[in-house]
Fold:
Amino acid sequence: MYTVAEHSERIVEADLRPLLYAERLMDSRAKTRRNLLRVLAAGSAQIDGADKRILEEFEQHGLAKNGEPTPAARALLKLLRLRETT
Structure:
């Protein structure tokens, strides 16, 4: 799902999938997914089993591409860190 908006006199396209998926990651039952997102961002992921399915889910929702976190995933991680410190 994408949206188009006008920004600085030009048209930009934004991927809304990570925003829509972020609410699911905030759920208390999504701890495993949040932990895998942190591992991906740290660059030390050994992906196997259930983690592989979660990675595919991340890619489907725009949080990962080719096993690497996207800018949307990094932004979400910052929000998660802020939420944990408040």
